[in-house]
């Protein structure tokens, strides 16, 4: 039994909290990103993304004018990332940026598609159409489309699958093209995507003469399933399945390209063993959850039990041993990777924004594969904490890395922490995170509900409306939600009388069973897999849910050595943190008093209303007399303690008030 | 006013604790190292040190036979470290190992010299003489002696001063040659050292046509001062002064060799500014303290006040902001360097054994320059903790890196901690630490006393005897010491009656003023700069010192964020640590109860008698109920606590009972 997400066109988001974020994405981020793609923001790193498409298009055009097929020059390796000295030095016919720079446009057009699907905007659509013309003009007559090789030399295309992201770019192209087609009905980019996918499908596979490789950075797998869903072309499904089945077979394909990898288990690319045998989430965290998402898609479509079981094991590996309380994953910046189980350092955390987004992707697919609210819990956790923290309140700066503890001086001076930025950055040369946030927030409608024939699942309590056709009748469901500030949710169902409509209301884990349902007395209700299944609608109905949002004190498992003796505070799905702005520096000196006493205060310090928590605590110092010969050490003579009130703010709001210390975990008195 | 160390021949060590270590060095380590230098230990990494000298000697011999001066081939760069596939593949005429491999012999011969000075051994001396013959045969007729360039091509010699250690090798050659000469009176190696120093002295200097560079790895500076002390040849002193004065001038000399360094402050090599302007200890820790030692030597000889002041500032920078409680320095493995002030992580510490040894060098020189017991305190701290921890009890394995906290699983799986080894290693390809320990322990006699005309300073309380001539009369001083187990020291002075002899007895900082002196009633005593100055000896006298060795609870300065809420225990100069072997795993759960209750237990578990400490503590766990959807987190419902006895052992004894957790700092109840 599985369920499926709703097309975003079917979901109208009316939520106060999220609508503001979505408006920000629409009005600020998408236009800003377009300027970035065109290198028109002087103070941000140049992207060269549209530059590269134009350069490739010009090469194509010249070939056509000369009456010949385009012939690229002999390949010369120009590195994984090439930038000119200054923007002015950029040559019209050269490739710049990272090898995967094309994908920046694809992510942008994907977000544009989602936005247009729900918020038509003819000016934006016109810009997008013109951009698509440029991109399509870069495609080779045979369907190949990756500007790095078109410009630098096609003779080496597909010879470095491990590092060179051609298949990754195909994946993002598909995602963008499908989104744009679904929003606008325009198929120009979709056709380009299909042609590139056809080209790849001809080249790759188990058959003799074909390349037996697979993407070094996954995403193509889930994208191809999506293309299959739209087109029902078997070859896209087959190609996706091939990529998943082939991965991790011995000998490792990438060893052929990179002999220095010989004999080393390739955890980084999740190619250390066939995917069905994998039980531990390892390697580059974004790659991993993108792969697992593709595996879940395949399991959904094929009913392959061994693949489903692998997905569940990998899910469990993440949520039970490698998940930050903020919903972040990828504990080490070395390889932007998962660390070993229970290694979840706070101050050197990587916890990349994109990885949390990938976890949302994976969670939604697991939820569809195995409908259980536990997946929605983690999806919500990642969304309300790490994903949201990735973007500043004004939508103009972004976090790539999401630490759980920051001392700004250490980020500046400690090379082990230099990946940690104490404030959000304008843009990144390797700009994966900002456009990934954009495409997620603009496609939020896909995550709120899911359905099967008669049942509508509410997975995220976000104010929204949808209509579901049940037995020929349109049932309208409207959700009003006070989240994340209050736990009051009301859901009105109209038109369900006399149908087999079932409403499955998720019971968030964070309520710990403390919730109240009113208005459902006339319905048949059954609690199963973390949902209240309501059926027997005899009239238009309004169900009110009251979820307990009392702040909770959370401790990590004792195996997480970094968190010993410390606690974090959550309120509903929102994780809190302490900032220097409220509490002064040296947060490590603060100890929460037990029994923990927490007061809630509404604040509008962050633009919209938010809840601050105030906790009785003490600031504790170790007292003693300096030892002679060094002023670094003293004889310990006990603690001095001063009563303080510790103020906590939602983690997703941190670093919006300048640079300072931050900590999710705080010591606790015992 | 300055003082000077005693020639080791004048000091007979009779100490129970140290004699055993010294016997180990003599009987185990020195012979073992000789086998290593000759690649005869199959299970240890091959050194190729003597191989290289032989290869260079053969090239020389061939040239002489052909009646021509040796001409090296055109230089071909073979890397910073070259090793053959297997020992059998090593070719007779090729260089192997690190560019500084020659120095392994020099460190060994230095230790041999010290050993022979106090413990004649004709067999060892014969081996050494033969080895010296090989080494001297490698020297070019012009005096140059560095096998890397002799074998690989002399045309590039002195073209990579930053990385290629030719001047570093000169420094170690001098140290070894002087030690061997002073012990045996044999001057063959000394003459080789002088000839190489002469060659360098001709090539380097401020004069036009000379190379204006200086060593990329310091040591030559202090070595040249030593050579000057022995030979009174002005040019050695001038060369040393030139190296110190030239360092850090702008533009940085190394930029010429390595244009990529242009404009970047060269902290790593302490060449970011002229040495007299330096106030913060930075860069590679071993290089730093070797440089500072040379600077102190120069200040001593020249009376240069600005240099003395720089030395004092750098000393203060170390001991007040960058010193581990174990006497270790160099907090980060990135560049094996000092980190920023107060950044003293326990579990990722570098704290290289060689750096602690270098700190001992620097401390002894500061003590001579500015006689104050505070320098001896730090010298003793480094010696009894990090230096001693560097060698296993059986003298057969060594620590390069000396962490203050170890969880073995993390060392294996966490790339940020892979420099940390939970047990000592047999030998290292880059074998700086083991021979450095050897030369320090075998020259311990230099560190116990110091003197000026009439005064003998006791700086380390190590059982020993010496004779000092005062006004033509021999005053014999014998020290008996219970350290490190007991604080009872007795000092007998004979033959001082009627002389101006002054005995300066160091008052260790760790007594915190709690000590008793008996037997000095008839003397004139004055306490100054951390010493009791005793004079007016009218008869043979025995002074008994009783230093309080009560274990003390130590806390780090509150700026050291890693140690907040934790304490360490010291007893006398000995720092203690908790091991899994005594306390089980998860040491982080243990909290010392306050007021701290410590019991001492004598143990012979480590061969010789040692003191274990037992501390009342509790093992604290955070209790709560698992949150659904992830088993990593739970609601915090308070602590459960179990009374335990925490057993602590001297830090220098850790990791002698197999692999397990270790921690110097332990949480404390408040």
Keyword list:
alpha+beta; Maltose phosphorylase, domain 3; 670 residues; six-stranded mixed β-sheet; homodimer; globular
Describe the structure.
Two copies of one chain form a homodimer. Chain A has 670 residues and is an alpha+beta fold. Among the domains of chain A are: 452-547, Sandwich (Maltose phosphorylase, domain 3), CATH 2.60.420.10; 552-669, no CATH class. Helices cover 35% and strands 21% of the residues of chain A. Chain A has 18 helices and 24 strands. In chain A, the strands form four sheets. A six-stranded mixed beta sheet of chain A has the order 1-6-7-11-14-13. In chain A, strands 2-8-9-10-15-12 form a six-stranded antiparallel beta sheet. In chain A, a hairpin with a 2-residue loop joins strand 17 and strand 18 (574-579). The longest helix of chain A has 22 residues, at 16-37. The model of chain A has no long low-confidence stretch (mean pLDDT 94). Strand 22 (633-650) of chain A pairs antiparallel with strand 16 (552-556) of chain B.
